[in-house]
Each structure stands twice: as structure tokens, then as C-alpha cells.
Amino acid sequence: MAQFFSKRHLKIAEQIIIVIFFAVLIPMTVSGVIISNINQQSNRAQLRSAAVMIANIVSEEVDVFVHSTDNELTQIITTLEYYKSREQEQKYLDEIRENLHFYTELAVINKSELEKYKAYRIQDDYAVFDRKMKDGRYLVAVMDMNNLKTNLFKTLTDDKRQIYVVVEDDLVASSNYTQDGYEKSIEELPDKLENNVATIYGDTKNQPLVYLKKTDPDVLIIVNTTEAVTRHAIDYNRNKIVLSILITILTVFFVVGLYTYYLYINIRQLFKAIIAISKGNYERRIRLLTNIFTPFELIFLGNEFNRMVNQIHKSYIQLKKKNKELKQVNEFRSNMIDTVSHEFRTPLTSILGYTSRLLRQDITIDEETRQKSLKIIKKQSERLKRMIEDLLVIPDIEGARLNVNIVPVPVNTVIENSIMLVRNETNKEIVNNIENCNIEILADTDRIEQVFVNLIENAIKYSKDESQITLDYEIANDQLVISVKNDYDIIPREKLKTLFDKFTRVDDTTTRTTRGTGLGLFIVKGLVEAMNGKIRLYSNEECGFCVKVFMPIADFS
After folding, report:
1. Cα 363 to Cα 133: distance, rounded to the nearest angstrom
2. Alpha helix (H) residue ranges in 399-508
3. Are strands 199-201 and 534-540 parallel, antiparallel or unpaired?
4. Residue 472: what are its φ and ψ, rounded to 5°?
5. Is 159 helix (H, G, I), strand (E, B) or coil?
6. In this structure, what DSSP letter does residue 11 have?
7. Which DSSP category does 500 fall into?
8. CA–CA gap between residue 169 and residue 382 (Å, rounded)
9. What is the pLDDT of residue 353?
10. Could you report the per-residue pLDDT of 485-528, keeping only the tens digit for each?
11. DSSP labels for 247-306?
12. Would you put residue 169 in left (φ > 0), alpha (ψ -120 to 50) or beta?
């Protein structure tokens, strides 16, 4: 049966039958069984077992009290044997009586004096215990019975049953005592009592009496279940019956209502999806509330509908992704063409012009002019090389395949070489506060120069007229922080976060007057992180625009 249900969802007709079965028949049947069982057995069994249990608990407490008393007296006798005089014995007994206040008297007497102590009666709240010593004398202990009463019922303070402890026909201890209850319990005792077994007696069926006749010591324990206790138990069980009926009724309403609710919600979902498809919304999904109340037909229909929509949506997503990739390729190609056509044209024009000048035979070129032309050709060639390296490093950065040779590099040398390699056509002032810094950083020499050439050129290109570029450093933990600052308007935080993306530039009047691909900071970030460094961008009133590069220090101590 379970295997049949686990393999498929049930049809509507099958589910209705099962719902009626589980929601009506089973709860009503179970409730009837519970009501019948509670009425016939629960009260009587609970009351009888509780009375027997209480009798046994009191019996155990009596045993504990007697045994502890015997042990104490045996220990006292053993200690007394070590004393040589009566004065020492009495002093020791006085000390014990001061520490154990439930002993009203402790004495060592002769046999002839024993009868005097027997005059103490139990009903006077005193009990006499005597033990014979090796020399023929007796140790006598007179005990306050209030101590026994306290110990016997300490675990039964909340129980309302009447409990009586009888020794030699005298009542020595009781709990919830009433004169009528005690007399009734004694009158109904059978003539012959069984020893050491908790036995139920009495004629009232729902008010059981229990006696326990102990032989060692000779004690009779009686537990009387009063009418109040019985009435409380009956009311409690009656409440259980009412609660069971209420639960049954609520279960019927809940299960049927829940089934109807889920069925309505799911059918409504089907109607909405069909209407949406009829209006041309092909991305609509059917979201069924799938559980045990969902019919097989609805689940099958919903799954087939969603499978069809998924195929359409998947094709749409793939087409959209391809269009996006194509747009990015077109943008990249456009930027690449722009870079090659403009950025490469300037150094190539300079190289071509000065090379043609040096090759002319119709003019005489002095040595100073020749050297100056060659330096310009060299500088423009290096610039062209750097731009080519920037373009070639992009695939390695994107594919995390960038190879670096990490060695200790003097940071002042790196900055000086970078400044020499940058193009500063506007002759903006570069303030180098790192020239006297002798700290070495762990980096790839060529790559770290490529980083700062890009940063310094960006700072020159995107700074305000007649402003200066500042290079500074500081030490933070085991890293050297190199900052490149330039005077620039504050860039919003949201825009600042995107500057490391490819082809991203700040769109304002400054950037619109300069040429660039928007690849500089993307390349710089990839190079710095490949050398185990970090790079951060800041823009505020204090620094304008600032780039901080965090590089590990070599042999930092």
C-alpha cells in the first residue's frame, strides 16, 4: 500500500475517498476507543497503582530511618568500648546529643534500669531504642518522633491522600489526618494481614485502601484514597475525553478545509497561466502548492506546461546572452580600432617623422640634433611597446594565466623609471616624495613599472590644468602603501566602484577631451593582484582622486 502511494500521485476521486477515511472514520473510531477505555479502566487503575506506590515509598522511608538509627547506635557502642571511665563515656554521649538534636537522651545503663526508659510511650512523641553492649550494659537512646514524621512524608507534600503509620496499635505519624478517615481505615482492615506486601482492601471501588504490614521493623502503613482525590482524577479524565472529541472535530474540519483550499489554489493557478499564454506571455510559470493534497492530474499538467515554458525561456536567455556577447565583442573591437588608430598613430608618426629626418641626404644634421631625434624615437618606441603590452596582458589577466617573477625591487627606482617613461605633454608638475625611500618591495620589476606608468599617465591625463601630481608612501603593517594623487572633482562612490571594469571611464568634460580605451585601471588591478598586492581608489575633498597600491615589503622586520 505504501509503495503504491509513493510511486504516483493520487487522482481526485482516490484522494476524496482517502480524505474521508482519514479525516472522519479513523478519528471517530479512535475517539470512541479512547472514550470507552478511559471510562472503564483509567480511573480505577490509576488510583490503585498510585496508592500502592505511595505505600511503598513510605515503607522505604521507614527502612531508611530504622537502618540509619541502627548504624548510628552501633557506631556509638563501638566508640564507647575505647573509653575507660564512666565520665569519658558520658562526655562523649553528651557531645553526640548536642550535635544530633533528635536524640533527647543518650545513656549507658544496667539491665535493671531498662524498665524505667520503657515508660516512654510512642503516643507521647518519643521512642526508645536500646542496644546491648559487650560488658552486659545497655545503650539507651530516647528519640523525638517528630523527626520521623518529617522524613517519612518529605517526598509526598503535594499528595492529598491520607497516610497513617501505626506501631503497636499506636499512630506514630500521619499525613492529611482526619479522625473519620483513620477510624474507617482501621475498621476495614482484614483480620489476617499479609506481611511485606502492599495490599489493596476496602469495599469502595474507586476509593482504594492499601495497607503494608512490615515485619522488620513491626510497622503498619495505611494509604486511604479520599473522595476528593477520586473526584479530581475523574474530572481530569473527563477533560481528556472532551479534548479528544474536540480534536476529532477540528481534525475533520482542518483536513477537509485544507484539501479544499489547496485544490482551489492550484486550479486557479492553472486558469491564470492559460489566460497569460493566450495573451502572449510565454514566460508565465505554474507554481503549484505540491503536497499530499495535490492531485496527480494537476501535477502532471503543471509539469508539462512549465517544461514547455522552460524551453521557450531557455532559448530566449541564450539568444539574449549571445546578443550581449556580440555587443561586447563589437564594443571591444570598436575600442581596439580606436586605440590602434589614435593611440598608436601618435608614436608611429613621431617615429616615422624623425626616422625620415635622419635618413635625408640633402641636409646636414649635427650630432646634438641626431641624439635628440634618436632619444625621441626610442621614447616613442617604448611608449608603443607599453601600449602593445597592455593589450596583450588582458587575456592573461582574464584567464588568470599571468606569469610574474617576484623579486625584491627598490621602490624609489621603480618610481623614477616610471616617471621617465610616462608621456607628460602638458608638463604638469610631478612631486615625487618616494625618491628617498630605500624600502624594497616584492614584485615583478617590469610589471610593477607597467603599473605605475599607467597610474601616473592617468593622473596626468585626468587632472585639472596647472595642477600637480603627488607620489607618496606610508607603511601599514608589513605592506608599503604607494599613493598617486591628482587634483580632480569628487567621483561618486557608485561610479568609483566601476572604474576597475574594462572600457569604463568617468564621463565628464575632462575625460571627453582626452583619448583612452578605459583599460588602464583594469590592467593595473590585474597586475597588482597577480603580485600579491592590493589596489584601492579614493575620491574626496582632501585628495581629489587617489590611487593606493599595497605591496608586500621584502625582509620586513
Report:
1. 147
2. 411-421, 445-461, 493-496
3. unpaired
4. -140, 175
5. coil
6. P
7. T
8. 123
9. 84
10. 988 888 888 888 788 776 666 654 434 444 555 677 888 888 88
11. HHHHHHHHHHHHHHHHHHHHHHHHHHHHHHHHTT-TT-------STTS-HHHHHHHHHHH
12. left
For residues 216 and 231, give the distance between their C-alpha atoms in angstroms, rounded to a whole number.
36
- C-alpha span between 388 and 335 (Å, rounded): 14
Strand pairing category for 162-167 and 469-476? unpaired
In tens, the pLDDT along 307-330 reads 877 777 777 788 888 888 788 767
Which of 54, 44, 59 lies closest to 208, judged by CA? Answer: 44
43-80 helix and 86-99 helix, angle to the nearest 10 degrees: 150
CATH topology of domain 402-552: Heat Shock Protein 90 (3.30.565)
**389: enclosing H helix or E strand:** helix 367-398
Q: In which residue ranges of the chain is CATH 3.30.565.10 found?
A: 402-552
The distance between the two most distant Cα atoms of the chain, rounded to a whole number of Å, is 160
Average pLDDT over residues 450-472: 86
pLDDT tens by residue, 187-238: 888 888 888 888 888 877 777 888 888 887 788 888 888 877 777 776 677 6
Residue 170 host element (H or E): strand 170-175
Residue 6: exposure state from Cβ atoms within 10 A (0-12, 13-18, ≥19): exposed
Record the cell numbers describing residue 329, joined without a space. Answer: 565583442
In the structure grid, which three cell numbers stand for residue 31, read together? 475517539
Q: Tell me, what's the pLDDT at 342?
A: 64
Q: What is the mean pLDDT of residues 425-447?
A: 87
Which carries the bigger pLDDT value, residue 42 or residue 108? 108
**Considering only CA atoms, which of 241, 162, 265 is closest in space to residue 209?**
162
Residue 106 near residue 69 (C-beta atoms within 8 A): no
* Structural contact between residues 226 and 161, judged by C-beta atoms closer than 8 angstroms: yes
Q: Across 350-439, where does the E strand assignment appear?
A: 407-410, 430-432
Instruction: Let me know: does 523 contact 390? Beta carbons within 8 Å.
Output: yes
pLDDT in tens, 60-119: 877 787 788 788 888 888 888 888 788 888 888 888 888 877 777 788 888 777 777 766
- The closest of 411, 541, 529 to 475, measured between CA atoms, is 411
Q: What is the pLDDT at residue 247? A: 83
